[in-house]
Structure formats: structure tokens, C-alpha cells
Amino acid sequence: MKILLCTNSFENVTNGPAKFANLILEINTLYPEHEIRILTEDITIPHENVYPVKVRLPRFLKLLSQFFRMFIYHNAAQKIRREFAYDVLLYNNSFIGLWSAIVSKQPTVGMINDDNNIIIGWNNFKASSMWLKRFLFRKCEKLSVRYHQHILTNSDFLTEKVIAAYGHPQKVTRLYKSIDLSKNKFQADRPFVQPIRILFVKADFRRGDLQTLTDALALLDRFTFQLTVVGPEERFKSLIESYFVGKGNLQLDWRGEQSPDNVRQLMYECDIFCVPALQEALGVANIEALACGLPVVSTIVGGIPEVLDHGKNGWLVPPGNPNELAQAIESSITFIEQRKNKVSNGESFVKRFSKYVMYQDLLAILQDVVSDHTHRDLSKKASSGS
């Protein structure tokens, strides 16, 4: 089976879709009966099995850039097929694959990686360009579910949300995003000397609710903390620094954007991983923390409970509540045996997020899609022949 993955995120490996795109190229080595190639705009250095595509749009069209990408990626994919006769088109963003889903002669599979569009509706109307953008994206995302042969989500939570909002339950399947466990060394013992080091990794620090985390740590004034912040762009540093004003037991360790290798090293150096997210479809960073033996404190939102096995692998609290978050962090510090049990549970549990499990599940789903498409084509030809 030949697969072409279209993704607007590849080289900048700081998010789930980019990590996924880089991982699955290993399919070519592990499963030689299959071949996968990638089409992306996010590449500056030539890479084997990766095709570049140029997306250049004037600034005034920025709001509609995803609509133009639909046609740009489709046209590029059709040109590639002249030399690489792929059996299935896989889009890392189902919306960008909408045009291909409608007109392509090959079967298409789209991925929905978050609920950013699903949650938009008239009940939360705002007179802003962002609300309008998300509203339009929701309409197109719904159409993509209708026209793609299959839709992949990354958690049971998101699967339920997609089906409830867009329908077509027979074509929506959960595929957990995975990590390369071989790169993570499990390290259960942490020093927990003051200042206790807390690690926060989230580019969208507002969605990760960094401010509530700083408020919670300030409540635990019998401890001193160093909060390492990874992910946000440099332009947000002054705003984030304001979260620390007047919190004497808390100091900021600003790291900004970091490579995956640097983040992994910080997971070995810190004592607790905490991103008390307000919204999260899965939370791959939590998986990485568990694989490193880092205690995890998070929130009962989205797919996070699936990663933390509903509290068996870490501490879960309601979002936006600094008091309960502070209590959970204090428990992770003071209840040593409880912490050891949760960390040990996490070591076993993350095996279900192994890249090999993801590869096999992905190939099985795509093979079914190709087989169904071939069967329908043969049926059509037989009907027309009769």
C-alpha cells in the first residue's frame, strides 16, 4: 500500500501533528510492503520521501489561508501521483483535505486533532475575526467528515465530540498519537529539594492555564518553587513574567521554544510536570512525562484522563481551580508512596501509546479504506457493465 500524507507541519517538531509526521516515515523501514511519503510546506532542508509545496499568500488573505491550502495541496498531490501512484491520501488536517475528499479518484482520510472548531457556535458568539474564522472552519470540518472516506481522531473524548457534532459514526475512529518510547529513559527517583522544580510545556500557555498554575503554587507558601516554562514565544515573556509578580515563593525559569530533545532533558531534571489545561484533545506531553518517570498533575478535561488512566497515573483536578490544583501538587510532594505508585502505573500504561501500536493501527485502518474503495469501484463497474 502506498500512502501520501499531506501536512502543513513537519520540520518544526513542536506539536503533535509534526511529531506524528516525522514518526510515521519509519513505516518505510519497518513495513517494506508499504510506502509512505509526505507533502508539506514546512520544510527547508531536503528530506528523503518528503515533497515540498509552496504556500505563498498575501497578508490580507491570511484569514482564508486554509481555504486556499485545500486547492494548493490537492493540485500538488495530483502532480506527485504521476511518479508515486499512492493508494490513499492522508490529510493531517481533515479540513485542508476537503477538496481532495470531494474530487479525488483515490480514497482520502482526514485527521481531526482537536476540538477548537467544534466548540464554536452561536452560543459563544464574539464579534471578532477569530470567531468568524473558527465558525467557517467548523462548517468546512463538518463537510470534511461527510466527504472523507474515513476520519481519525486522537482520543475517545474527541471521537465522541466529532460524532456528536458532525455525525457519521461509522467512519470516525480513534488513533492515539504516540511517542518513540525508546528515546525516553524511565527515571522514577526525583530529589524534591527546594526549590521544587515544576515543568510547564505548552506553546498556547493560556489554553494550558499557566496563570492558574502560578496562583496555585503561590498558595503553597511553605515550599519554594522554580517554574520552568517551555513553549511560548518570546513576545509573551513580559506577560508571563507578570504572573509571578508578588509571589515570593515562586521564581520563573524562562526557556521559551525548545527542541524535543531539550524538553526531554528537562523532564529528567524537574520534579513535577504540570499543565493544568482548560482544553486538550489528548496531551502528548503528559505521555512523554510519564515515560520519563516524571509525576504528572493535570486537569479533568478532554483526553487527559485517558492518558492518566483517570487518576491512576497522576493527579487530576477540575480546570481553573487554583485551590484544588494546589492541593494536588502538595499531595504529589508529600505523599511519597502514592507518588511512587502513580509513577509506576504510568510506566506500564504508556506502552499503549507506543509508536509500533500506532503504526499497526494506522496501516490496518488505511488498508480497510483502500479495500472498501476498490470494492465500491468494482461494484460500480459491474453495475455499469450489466
UniProtKB/TrEMBL annotation:
One of its GO terms (molecular function) is glycosyltransferase activity. The keyword Aminoacyl-tRNA synthetase does not apply. This is Glycosyltransferase family 4 protein. Keywords: Glycosyltransferase, Transferase. Residues 190-346 form the Glycosyl transferase family domain. Its EC number is 2.4.-.-. SUPFAM superfamilies: UDP-Glycosyltransferase/glycogen phosphorylase. It comes from the Bacteria. Transmembrane segments: none annotated.
